[in-house]
Amino acid sequence: MGTQVQYRRVLLKLSGEALGGKRDYGVDFEVVRSVSRQLKQVIGHGVQIALVVGGGNIFRGLAASTRGFDRATGDYMGMLGTVINALALQEGMEQIGLEVRTMTAVQMNQVAEPYIRRVALSHLEKNRVVLLAGGIGNPFFTTDTTAALRAVELGAEVVLKATKVDGIYTADPLLDPSAVKLTRVDYLEMLNRGIGVMDNTALTLCMDNGIPIVVFDLLKEGNMERVILGEEIGTMVGSPK
C-alpha cells in the first residue's frame, strides 16, 4: 500500500464523451482498457473507488429536448445509456482481474444491482470498484449532480472529474489560444463566472459538504495515479485558502 496517498476513498466522474474517446458516438474500448488499467494502479495503493459514468456518447436528454423531444423521456433514455457504458467498463475491469459491482438507480435486476447506500459502502470496504449507473433515477438531474450526491452519501474525500482536457481554462483552449489554465478555483468563483465544468447543483452540493473537485485529463495514462498521490495536475476546485 502506498504511503503518500492523498485520498483513501474517491468518487470518479467519467463523462460519456470521455468514454467515447475520439468517436462521435459509442464506446471506445481503448479508453475502457486505459481507464481499467489506471484504476488497477490506484487500487494498488489501497484506494477505494466509486465511479459515476455519464451517457452523452449514446444519448443526451437535454440536447434532445431542444429539438422538441420530451425532456423526461430523453433523460430516461440517457440513464439507460449510462448503464451500457457501465457494463462496458465492468467488462474491461474484470478482464484485468478487478472486482467490480455495477449498481443502478433504475432497477434492472438482470444486469445490475439496485443502488443501496449501505450495500455500496460494503462493496467499497471489500475493495471492489462500484460503478454507479442510471443517474439518481429521476429526470432533470445531471450525472454531475449524481456524482456530487453519491460522493456525499458514500463519504468520498474528493470528486475526480475526468475529462478530455487537462483542467479548467479562462476560455475554450481549442478556440482561444490566449486561454490560461487555472490551477485552483474556489466554488463561488465557479458559480459566479458560470464556468461550465459542472452544473450549479453539483457544485453547491460539493461546496456545502466541503468536498474538493479535481478536473484532470483522463486520456493521459497515469494521471489518475498522479492525482491520488497528491501531484498538482489539472485544476482543483475547493474553498479559498
Query: Major sheet: order of its strands?
Result: 4-3-5-2-1-6-10-11-9
- Bulk shape: globular
**How many beta-strand runs?**
11
Second-tier CATH architecture = 3-Layer(aba) Sandwich
Care to give the gist of this entry?
The chain is α/β, with parallel strands linked by helices and 241 residues long.
What does this molecule look like?
With 241 residues, the protein is α/β, with parallel strands linked by helices. The protein has one domain: Carbamate kinase (3-Layer(aba) Sandwich). It has helices at 16-20, 29-43, 61-65, 71-95, 117-125, 143-153, 187-193, 200-208, 223-228, and strands at residues 9-14, 48-53, 100-104, 113-114, 129-133, 158-163, 168-169, 181-182, 184-186, 213-217, 235-238. The strands form two sheets. Strands 4-3-5-2-1-6-10-11-9 form a nine-stranded mixed β-sheet, sandwiched between helices. It has a two-stranded antiparallel ribbon with strand order 7-8. Helix 7 packs antiparallel against helix 8 (200-208). The model has no long low-confidence stretch (mean pLDDT 91).
Provide the fold topology.
Layout: E1 9-14, H1 16-20, H2 29-43, E2 48-53, H3 61-65, H4 71-95, E3 100-104, E4 113-114, H5 117-125, E5 129-133, H6 143-153, E6 158-163, E7 168-169, E8 181-182, E9 184-186, H7 187-193, H8 200-208, E10 213-217, H9 223-228, E11 235-238
Parallel strand pairs: 1-2, 1-6, 2-5, 3-4, 3-5, 6-10, 9-11
Antiparallel strand pairs: 7-8, 10-11
Helix pairs in contact: 2-4, 6-8, 7-8
